[in-house]
């Protein structure tokens, strides 16, 4: 396990990485190539158990869904650590893609994906600021409420 400063920042926030992050289908969790780490989309699940289901509606708490997006980010960080050996090798979070399983016409998807974005900024500082796409979709794997993927530059 990594003892680096990034995991210390997570601990200071009262957060931890999941003990595992099994893939749900026939794909790899990450691909490291030429200093870029491409992380496959991760849903709001803990050790394979979905925690928030969609669709998100106007009655759904944005703050609760931000926690779902944060869980996606924790799964992404688990995969990044698995790929790199240490999260301290992250030079820059380049891009996040966020997907919210929402009812037609739902417009607060970007605010939900802020749960993932803010975690990356909180732990990586300026290196965590990134370009981003945040969209609402009609479904996600196992009816999960949120999915997030990432592209990261590494040393």
Description of the molecule:
It is a single chain. With 155 residues, the chain is of the alpha+beta class. The chain has a single domain (5-154), classed as RutC-like (60s Ribosomal Protein L30, Chain: A, 2-Layer Sandwich), CATH 3.30.1330. 30% of the residues lie in helices and 28% in strands. A five-stranded mixed β-sheet has the order 1-2-7-5-6, with helices on one face. A hairpin with a 2-residue loop joins strand 1 (30-33) and strand 2 (36-43). Helix 2 (62-84) crosses helix 3.
Biggest sheet architecture: 5 strands, mixed
How large, in whole angstroms, is the Cα Rg? Answer: 15 Å
- The name of the CATH topology is 60s Ribosomal Protein L30, Chain: A
CATH structural class:
Alpha Beta
Domains (count): 1
Give the full name of the CATH homologous superfamily. RutC-like
β content, as a range?
25-35%
Order of helices and strands: HEEEEHEHEE
Q: Helicity level, as a percent range?
A: 25-40%
The number of E-state strands comes to: 7
Strand order of the largest sheet: 1-2-7-5-6
Give the uncertain stretches in residue-range form.
none
- What is the architecture at the second tier of CATH? 2-Layer Sandwich
- Compute the average pLDDT: 95
Instruction: List the total number of helices.
Output: 3
Distance between the termini: 19 Å
Query: Which word captures the global form?
Result: globular
């Amino acid at each position: 396990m990594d003892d680096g400063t990034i995991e210390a920042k997570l601990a200071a926030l009262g957060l931890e990485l999941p003990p595992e992050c099994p893939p749900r289908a026939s794909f790899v969790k990450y691909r490291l190539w030429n200093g870029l780490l491409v992380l496959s989309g991760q849903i709001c699940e803990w050790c394979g158990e979905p925690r928030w289901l969609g669709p998100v509606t106007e009655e759904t708490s944005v703050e609760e869904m931000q926690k779902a997006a944060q869980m996606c980010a924790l799964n992404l960080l688990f995969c990044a650590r698995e790929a790199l050996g240490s999260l301290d090798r992250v030079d820059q979070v380049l891009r996040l893609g966020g997907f919210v399983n929402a009812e037609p016409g739902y417009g607060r998807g970007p605010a939900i994906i802020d749960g993932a974005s803010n975690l990356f900024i909180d732990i990586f500082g300026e290196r965590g600021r990134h370009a981003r796409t945040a969209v609402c979709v009609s479904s996600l794997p196992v009816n999960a409420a949120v999915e997030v993927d990432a592209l990261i530059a590494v040393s």
